[in-house]
Amino acid sequence: PITMTVSDYGVRRVTEQRVTDSQIRRFFFGHRPMPESPSDPSLVRWMHLRGYNLNLLLGLTVKYNLHPLAVEDTIEQAPSKADRYGPHYFTTIEGLCLAAKADESQPVRVGGYHVAVFCAGPPLLDTVITIA
After folding, report:
1. pLDDT tens-digit map of 17-38
2. C-alpha distances in angstroms, 94 versus 82, 97, 100, 106, 122?
3. What CA–CA distance (Å, rounded) separates 48 from 4?
4. This prediction's pTM
5. Which of these, 104, 102, 92, 83, lies nearest to 131 by C-alpha position?
6. pLDDT given for residue 63 in this prediction
7. Are 43 and 9 in contact (CB under 8 A)?
8. Which conformational region is residue 15 in: left (phi greater than 0), alpha (psi within -120 to 50 degrees), or beta?
9. Contacts from 17-22 at CB under 8 Å and sequence distance 24+?
10. How confident is the prediction for the chain on average, in pLDDT?
11. Among 48, 37, 50, 38, which residue's Cα sits nearest to residue 8?
12. Which pLDDT score, from 0 to 100, does residue 59 have?
């Protein structure tokens, strides 16, 4: 199942929400919460998309002005790399993990995973998007 979790961090609070299908429109056309005090720095937003959904990825691309080459690398699951596209940073990470607990009766099974990380929101770079 595909899930999108949004966490907003500030000096005084942290809020976390799982964005459901019924909340998608409000998320994409809404704004992040404001800091509790005008003297506080702006909130940092971390969005984590678990599972691949092209429509959600393209929606995030438009909302946060993600670079097309970085989005292409996410879709194509490019090998591990780090790049800067204008004011945004992007990295992909390929990893290996045990697919099942190893024991002496069976061979070790290894699984792979791919994570894409966007750092966006210039000029503050206050938005991190991870897709796994």
Report:
1. 999 988 999 999 998 888 888 8
2. 12, 10, 18, 25, 27
3. 6
4. 0.84
5. 92
6. 93
7. yes
8. beta
9. none
10. 90
11. 48
12. 94
Residue pair 86/95 in contact (Cβ under 8 Å)? The answer is no
pLDDT of residue 45: 94
CA angle 85, 122, 38 (to 5 degrees): 165
Say how many residues make up the chain: 132
Strand partners, 15: 8
Round to whole Å and give the CA distance between 102 and 107: 7
Contact 64, 119 (CB under 8 A): no
Residue 19 in contact with residue 6, Cβ under 8 Å?
yes
Q: State the DSSP string of 98-132.
A: ESS--BTTB---EEEEEEEEEEE-TTTT-EEEEE-
The per-residue pLDDT for range 33-68, each reduced to its tens digit, is: 888 888 888 889 999 999 888 999 999 999 999 999
Contact 80, 94 (CB under 8 A): yes
Residue 82, token pair as written in the block: 């780090």
